[in-house]
Design goal:
By secondary structure, the protein is mainly alpha-helical. The protein has 17 helices and four strands.
């Protein structure tokens, strides 16, 4: 047992102190902090900037003033300025940077507004959208006036249709509860996905690195393959937990700073206001089981290669399984009751994400969750037994890897010992 903890702590501390791990953690945390503060960063660079000027040629003589009011309500950083010169003169001033664009206003045969917008490029879609939306609102107001519609009648036309949703099942979740669950599941699916795909490959690389340095020959003679394999799996697992805690803390602090002025705060904004203990428990359980499943698979796949360069090629099928499960889960967010989603939630390589999706989105019987967890546990145990046998022979194999044909060779070496 002492050998197990020696390898466990050695794997954890060695990886924790590496420059690549520290650098990756810091850079990822900074990127996460930056992404959640993009609105503040944009405001910081634009708060002292000049208001964007748009030249307006109004041939109708009646559209400019009401349109200015609409644009002011839509976007305070845009200012419409009347231009008394010709279109060619306005285009010349756009080229010199005096204006960012030209809005040419006219009236149609029905005496409704029409416009042509000219700019050096159309890359700033937000300006075009704001102008078009403001003009559309102005057109609606003018059309209602011509049709002698009152404001109350106009409001009735644009009032959303009354559409109530009623679920007949007694235990069915309401639309509000589904939206909250969808936000939580969406975030946690990404955590499960990146945890599995990143840290499982780290285990495979760790095993291949020790093989390439011939350290494995010494370790395998003093420590049983099962102890060695699971010491590495748990060591990398603790490392991943350390990194995830850093990311979650940074993300929580950064997002909360941007949402603290919103009603309900951070948790309610993302639908986290009423998270049940059961959902959080299932999230932890399926994340851990998914990690152990793929980590065990990655450990014995990594033992089949002698060069670090061959690791990615060997674990590519495993990566496809993770990506496949994630894509099915994304589809399941819209149709969690689909038969395809239900069936794949019992397939062990997909169930960490898909069964958790069903648990979060639906009220399913406890026996279904227990069956999925049971299948996962049995698969992990069988994979661990088989993986240990492959691992024991695989770590003694050197030379160019022949992909999965080496599994048979590794098993033969294990029998000879």
């Amino acid at each position: 047992m002492n050998n197990f903890f020696t390898i466990f702590f050695h794997t954890y501390l060695t990886k924790l102190k590496t420059k690549s791990f520290i650098f990756t953690t810091i850079i990822t945390a900074l990127i996460l902090f930056t992404l959640t503060n993009i609105p503040r960063i944009i405001d910081f660079f634009e708060k002292d900037g000049e208001v964007e000027q748009i030249a307006v040629i109004d041939e109708s003589g009646q559209l400019l003033e009401p349109l200015q009011q609409q644009v002011a309500m839509m976007n305070e950083s845009l200012e419409l300025s009347e231009f008394t010169g010709s279109v060619e003169e306005a285009e010349a001033q756009i080229e010199t940077g005096e204006y960012i664009g030209l809005l040419h206003l006219t009236l149609t045969a029905d005496q409704l507004p029409a416009a042509t917008y000219k700019a050096m490029s159309m890359t700033d879609s937000s300006v075009v959208f704001d102008l078009q939306a403001s003009l559309q609102q102005l057109k609606t107001m003018m059309a209602s006036t011509y049709l002698n519609l009152t404001q109350e009648e106009l409001a009735q036309i644009y009032e959303p249709v009354s559409f109530e949703r009623v679920a007949l099942a007694e235990d069915a979740k309401t639309e509000e509860e589904l939206n909250q669950a969808r936000g939580l599941v969406y975030v946690l699916l990404f955590i499960i996905y990146f945890s599995v795909i990143m840290y499982a490959s780290m285990i495979a690389t760790e095993v291949a690195t020790e093989k390439s340095s011939r350290v494995m020959e010494i370790l395998i003679s003093s420590v049983s393959p099962i102890k060695q394999m699971f010491a590495k799996i748990l060591g990398i697992g603790l490392l991943s937990l350390t990194q995830l805690v850093v990311f979650l803390l940074v993300g929580y602090v950064a997002v909360k700073q941007n949402l603290e002025t919103m009603e309900g705060g951070f948790f309610e904004f993302f639908g986290f206001g009423n998270i049940s203990v059961e959902t959080i428990t299932y999230a932890i359980v399926f994340t851990l089981l998914g990690y152990f499943l793929y980590a065990t698979l990655a450990a014995f796949l990594g033992s089949l290669v002698s060069r670090i360069e061959d690791v990615n090629q060997m674990i590519t099928p495993m990566t496809f399984l993770v990506v496949g499960g994630f894509m099915i889960a994304m589809f399941g967010l819209g149709k969690p009751e689909a038969t395809f989603v239900t069936i794949t939630s019992y397939i062990p390589f997909f169930s960490p994400m898909i069964m958790f999706l069903r648990v979060g989105m639906l009220n399913i019987p406890t026996w279904e969750v227990a069956l999925s967890i049971g299948i996962l546990v049995v698969t992990i145990v069988l994979l661990a037994i088989f993986g240990a046998r492959v691992y024991r022979g695989g770590v003694l194999m050197y030379g160019k890897s022949n992909s999965f044909k080496d599994i048979k060779t590794a098993l033969q070496l294990t029998k000879k010992e």
